[in-house]
Design brief:
By secondary structure, the protein is of the alpha+beta class. The protein contains four helices and seven strands; from the N terminus they run βααββββββαα. It has a single domain, classed as Alpha-D-Glucose-1,6-Bisphosphate, Chain A, domain 4, CATH 3.30.530. A seven-stranded antiparallel sheet has the order 1-7-6-5-4-3-2, covered by helices on one side. A hairpin with an 8-residue loop joins strand 5 and strand 6. The mean pLDDT is about 95.
């Protein structure tokens, strides 16, 4: 399989660490930027504490053409939350919005933050730990673009504050 199994994104945001941390840990802020362009999050549960649960249903908007109206659910669990320093969570894409449905992709995501005064450096590292089924290949092929668009949306959201 030629699809990527790891991804690293490093960005420096023109925003202080406390705001970047809030954007990654406040459910209301996550709802605004999570997912690639053209996606909203009508369901967003994000409990950023060790053992806390994640459940997000991304909804494809009309900008995504034939995918419009499709729902892309995910669930996960926080493994590590070190305030203003590191987030580690395991998550997976679900076959349908039933929280008990099987995941076809599972990943572990580590996000490290560095205070640069009025700016914040973020280093995100993602490792695919499981991929199977017909949906996995397409999801993996779009992973790099999707995550980069998502982080672009985060940067745009930070500029509003």
């Amino acid at each position: 399989m030629d699809e990527p199994r790891e991804l690293t994104i490093e960005r420096t945001f023109d925003a202080p660490l406390d705001l970047v941390w809030k954007a990654w840990t406040d459910e209301k802020m996550i709802r605004k930027w999570w997912g690639p362009r053209g996606v909203t999050n009508p369901t967003c549960e994000w409990d950023a504490r060790p053992g806390g649960k994640i459940y997000i249903v991304m909804l494809a908007g009309k900008e995504l053409g034939p995918a419009a109206g499709m729902k892309w659910p995910m669930k996960g669990t926080f493994k590590e939350v070190t305030p203003q320093s590191r987030l580690v969570f395991a998550g997976g894409a679900l076959d349908d919005v039933d929280r008990a449905s099987d995941t076809f992709i599972e990943q572990e995501v580590t996000v490290d933050f560095e205070d640069l005064g009025t700016k914040t450096k973020m280093n995100l590292h993602l490792i695919i730990t499981k991929a199977g089924g017909p949906k996995a290949s397409a999801a993996l092929q779009g992973m790099t673009q999707g995550w980069n668009q998502q982080i672009d949306k985060l940067a745009e959201e930070l500029q509003k504050h």
